Amino acid sequence: MINLIMNDILGTPAILVGLFALIGLIAQKKNVADTVSGTLKTIMGFVILGAGANVLVQSLGKFSDMFNEAFSVDGVIPNNEAIVALAQESFGTETAMIMLFGMVANIIIARISPFKYIFLTGHHTMFMACMIAVILKTGGLSGVMMVLVGSVILGSLMVLFPALLQPYTRQITGSDDFAVGHFGSTGYFISALIGKKVGKNSRSTEEINVPKSLGFLRDTSVSVSLTMVILFFVVALFAGPSFIQNNLSGGQNFLVFAFMQGLTFAAGVYIILSGVRMLLGEIVPAFKGIAEKIVPNAKPALDAPAVFPFAGNAVIIGFILSFVAGLLSMFFLPIFGLKVIVPGLVPHFFTGAAAGVFGNATGGRKGAIFGSMANGVIISFLPALLLPVLGTLGFEGTTFGDADFGVVGIILGNLIGLAESNILFIILSLVVLAILFGIGWKQRGGNNEQEEEATEAG
């Protein structure tokens, strides 16, 4: 029964988001037709988003195979799904319990604190629960105490990271309707800060001047298609026709294969954006019920692609430059005595694209460029630094890919290593969380003052 609830219901992001929409619509006393329609459209939006992600991931998988063949890359490849799957055999029950009670903790903290965010990215909740379980159990905690501590940590992270990003999320969307709930937030936050520093008077990526003869490039789908087709062509030429035609294309000409894979990638992006638009169109109104009845003023914290439609050019710039920074980082990691982290296309696309959007919001084109490159460096070095604290899982050839896993894992792993007893570790963890809540509270106060001043000036 626990497996059914945790893995098949709460572990399925579309159903989880749909359940929250259902609760919100019921709380608003909507009629049956509106409730059914709103719930199903919310789930469909997430399913469409997931379908687009699958199309995109399949295309990126082919690109990764070609890239590895072309440049003989060898090292640790970050992949959240892979390392969680490996961990489930030894840490499955602990992961499920921390995830369940972490979600409860999220709602309680949102209810009693100023941080009114409900984290709805279910798969990332599971990934973080898994990493916390691995580190706590490896460090000597077990049983009820481990689940309790892990749940409080997880629930706190589920409100803190959306709160950290919210001032910049508002800049991106022009509203306060939703937050970003994705454990790549450290990279997005740093990208936004870099944009502030370097992007003074820099124009937005969405204001790129295109000659009339190239006006078709204003269509995001066309520009993404051309960019990815060129990238696939270049890598295909280095990988060689024999490898591609014998191992990937089933005999199809390698250039035709590269062309179609570039278009497949673009199709995946288009599907993702369509799913996001449908999801936002339903979940934001439905969430008003939760805000009114359960957690006053609650905001849904949604997956990173929720911001993609607001800056389509920044999405592609962010992905490409984050990946380039990851490639460059490969040469520097051994200098610091760290394992080589092979840049994974999936984390670099989703987090690099989001970093580009956040950098563009605060610093225009310069912010998108330098912010996304910073993200690429961050998600190269943090996974390498995380490996030692994962115990035996750190030797499996993969690791967690997004920035927040590295930050949280390294802090937790070192705290539990420094503490001489479990009680001391728990106290230290609570102190760190209290400091983070204090910083967030102070930042929130400053933002509120700025908003009030802006309102008065208007």
UniProtKB/TrEMBL annotation:
Record's keyword annotation contains Membrane: yes
Leader peptide range in chain numbering: none
Q: Name one GO biological process term.
A: phosphoenolpyruvate-dependent sugar phosphotransferase system
Q: Quick one: a GO cellular component term?
A: plasma membrane
Task: Assign the protein's first listed, main location to one coarse class.
Answer: membrane
Q: Classify the protein's membrane topology as the record does.
A: Multi-pass membrane protein
Subcellular location per UniProt equals: Cell membrane
Return the similarity comment: Belongs to the UlaA family.
Q: What does this protein do?
A: The phosphoenolpyruvate-dependent sugar phosphotransferase system (sugar PTS), a major carbohydrate active transport system, catalyzes the phosphorylation of incoming sugar substrates concomitantly with their translocation across the cell membrane. The enzyme II UlaABC PTS system is involved in ascorbate transport.
Question: What protein does this entry describe?
Answer: Ascorbate-specific PTS system EIIC component
- Its source organism is Pontibacillus yanchengensis Y32
